[in-house]
Amino acid sequence: MNKTYYLIFLLFFAASYSSPGIADPVHVYEDFVGCFKNKTNISDKDLTDVVLSHTSVSYTPVLRAYIRNARFNTSSTPKPSVIVLPRVDSQVQAAVVCTKTLNLQLKIRSGGHDYDGLSYVAAVTFIVLDLSNFRNITVDMNEDGGSAWVQTGATLGELFYRIWEKSDVHAFPAGICPTVGVGGHVSGGGYGHMIRKFGLTVDYVVDATIVDAKGRVLDRKAMGEDLFWAIRGGGAGSFGVVLAFKVKLVEVPKTVTVFRVDRSSDQNALDMVHKWQFVAPRTDPGLFIRVLLASPTKNKTQTVNAKVRALYLGKANDVVSMMAKEFPELGLKIEDCKEMTWIQSLLWWMNHKDVEKVKTGCFTRKGTGLG
Ligand SMILES: Cc1cc2nc3c(=O)[nH]c(=O)nc-3n(C[C@H](O)[C@H](O)[C@H](O)COP(=O)(O)OP(=O)(O)OC[C@H]3O[C@@H](n4cnc5c(N)ncnc54)[C@H](O)[C@@H]3O)c2cc1C
Ligand SMILES: *[C@@H]1O[C@H](CO)[C@@H](O)[C@H](O)[C@H]1NC(C)=O
Ligand SMILES: *[C@@H]1O[C@H](CO)[C@@H](O)[C@H](O)[C@H]1NC(C)=O
Ligand SMILES: *[C@@H]1O[C@H](CO)[C@@H](O)[C@H](O)[C@H]1NC(C)=O
Ligand SMILES: *[C@@H]1O[C@H](CO)[C@@H](O)[C@H](O)[C@H]1NC(C)=O
Ligand SMILES: *[C@@H]1O[C@H](CO)[C@@H](O)[C@H](O)[C@H]1NC(C)=O
């Protein structure tokens, strides 16, 4: 190849590939707004609250509000060209259609607890659809056994709270960490401390509304059973934007029991953990026993601490006598147990002795994965 041509060729490649797939955010914003206004007829006043550009004063606070992993909270983390904060269904529809028209990537964010920041980070030009205004919850205790419609921008804690407002003997089987979002949690499967008795969160989803890639709003009947199956565990982001889920509630006793037992290896922790592996999966389904293994810091000797945390859907006396029979290695005493309501037990899980760690994950947004 002629040397000059070769150089031009190289320069051309260097120029066009210097920032692969990244478009100028000002143009992206203008093109997006043009399309969005056309599809929604939104007033200019409302537009400033719903479609945020880099220069908007709310851009950074809105983006940060649901960054739950500090690793993706740096100046070099890729930022969205536009943030859309929809207030009504038609704005979600427009966001989907306009992102597609402009050939950009749409990142859907509910609670922002994605471990890899997938709901607010991308390597190409992208738009964040932030569902934090979609958090209405309607609990209906008249329907057989109780049910709720919950919009996906709500958190699990908000759902638990709204159920408790209506009934202290109903609950929802899901993860314990109250700041996890309904959108990602439910569409990803969901499990928590009642999994043994009730199974996965998605087992309680009976209907949903979704905006599909063509911008249509579909309920279960309209989307069909295949798509409805896919969004219950398949991670809904690949299939559309879930606006809301309809879930069935479960019944829990008015009084539940929680307990904690801490053992070091000097106190037969190993025998206890060994036996736990056989008891925990087979005992009464109303009993969930978690064990955390930790090596005490600042201690050079080889030792292990086992921390047992448990929820029993029943009375303290019953679980103590059950454990005496099935799991004597645990040495559970009535003093280790606390009776309370189900909603209080959620607070207990967030507040146990290792509360610093759990709090980090759930309340100060650092995302340790606990909970
Ligand atoms: C501290 C902590 C504790 C956790 N505890 C548990 C637990 O006890 N049990 C458990 O099962 N899991 C647990 N998880 C995992 C958690 O359920 C998942 O990370 C879940 O995906 C988070 O949902 P989100 O809405 O908060 O996250 P987001 O980051 O908002 O979303 C996660 C993913 O779902 C997509 N998505 C979000 N909303 C929608 C929507 N409306 N429509 C379509 N796609 C959507 C996003 O694009 C992204 O890909 C925990 C995670 C953390 C960080
Ligand atoms: C808005 O819609 C009108 C009529 O459908 C069309 O002529 C116009 O090009 C659209 N403008 C943009 C910016 O999409
Ligand atoms: C927008 O407003 C015009 C004029 O009022 C109307 O004809 C059109 O149908 C509206 N479009 C949408 C998407 O609401
Ligand atoms: C992200 O950074 C800002 C500014 O430094 C800080 O105020 C905020 O608490 C951080 N959020 C997380 C999740 O680390
Ligand atoms: C939530 O409910 C209120 C009151 O019914 C309603 O005005 C609002 O539009 C709803 N929000 C969404 C996002 O559906
Ligand atoms: C370290 O471990 C040893 C052996 O188990 C124990 O006797 C000692 O109390 C521990 N020290 C601390 C600071 O935990």
Can you give a write-up of this model?
This protein has 371 residues and is of the alpha+beta class. Helices cover 35% and strands 20% of the residues. The structure holds flavin-adenine dinucleotide and 2-acetamido-2-deoxy-beta-D-glucopyranose (5 copies). It is found in: Secreted, Cell wall. Its cofactor is FAD.
Provide the CATH top-level class of the largest domain.
Alpha Beta
Largest sheet: 5 strands, antiparallel
Any idea of the CATH topology of the largest domain?
A: Uridine Diphospho-n-acetylenolpyruvylglucosamine Reductase, domain 2
- Roughly how many Å apart are the termini? 61 Å
% residues in beta strands: 15-25%
| Mean model confidence by pLDDT | 89
Instruction: Report the strand count.
Output: 15
Strand order within the widest sheet? 5-6-10-8-9
Shape: elongated
H/I helix tally: 14
Quick recap of the structure?
The chain has three domains: 128 residues, Uridine Diphospho-n-acetylenolpyruvylglucosamine Reductase, domain 2, CATH 3.30.43.10; 115 residues, Uridine Diphospho-n-acetylenolpyruvylglucosamine Reductase, domain 3 (2-Layer Sandwich); 85 residues, Vanillyl-alcohol Oxidase, Chain A, domain 3.
